[in-house]
Write a structure and sequence with these properties.
106 residues, mainly alpha
């Protein structure tokens, strides 16, 4: 269950990271509220997950999910340019996240 909670925390990180640009420097109310709420949920769930999962392991997985997810949102929904080497680097990050999970104690 802690790993599921950690993944959900990572997904909320994708939400807040993706909303950051939409806040326009925290001048737009609705995206800013969404940003703050998703950030709070993400942090809370991370804290719940790290009651069982070591903080370093949990944080690495959480950041990785957020980074990969924000990259995917940018490319798929915001038409941000990408290239082969960048995609390869993100895939390496995905492999690293999986390796962290598979090598975690417990």
């Amino acid at each position: 269950m802690p790993w599921f909670v950690l993944v959900v925390a990572g997904l909320f990180e994708v939400v807040w990271a993706s909303l950051l640009e939409e806040t326009k420097g925290f001048t737009r109310v609705v995206p800013t509220v969404g940003f703050v709420l998703s950030l709070a949920i993400s942090m809370y769930l991370l804290s719940v997950a790290t009651r069982t999962i070591p903080v370093g392991t949990g944080y690495a997985v959480w950041v990785g999910i957020g980074a990969v997810g924000a990259f995917v949102v940018g490319v798929v929904f915001r038409d941000q340019a990408t290239n082969g080497p960048q995609v390869a680097a993100v895939l390496a990050l995905v492999a690293s996240i999986i390796a962290v999970k598979l090598t975690a104690a417990g």
